[in-house]
Design goal:
Aminopeptidase; alpha+beta; single chain; 25% strand; 5 helices; 193 residues; 31% helix
Amino acid sequence: MDTVISRLDPGDFRDRLPEALGVYVDAMGYPTQVVRSRAPAWMEHSHREGWSCVAAFDPPRRRLIGHARGPLVGICYGYRGAPGQWWYEQVSRGLRDHDHHLPEDYVELTELHVAPAHQGRGLGTMLLTEFLSDRTEPMVLLSTPEVDDEANGAWRLYRSHGFTDVLRDYRFDGDARPFAVLGRPLPLPGARE
């Protein structure tokens, strides 16, 4: 059996939150105590307008009891961007410094992570395309840490799907690392109509 990509409703997301945050911590190389601060934020995000989520699951080891899906190995979620949201306000500030502004209607791809042992198998592409397949917004925006020569799987994924620079070398409040904000028009080529 292959990995299964499946949409999660808010209840499924809540039930799988510890696994999803474990994937996030492993993929980003964060210390495990980050989970304590991120769990409430992720739960709050699931109540925002336009929130949707897809996840990648390994096949179940057994189906007699427990989840009908196996372990969660990838997560992707986002929602409609709006004034008053932390990311919106941060990016707006950065763009104003360059005499630009955020579009009025976009989906924020908030999180996209694949467990390190499952990276390089196309799961990021599957999660991204499924997440964006039914979005009604005309544009998607995201942020990702800057890396030398854009040499990692996240950058390859985003560039291969036509994401271009919106803001580079930006520092969000509370994180010393530089980030890039990337975006692209929707729908993706070949997306379901």
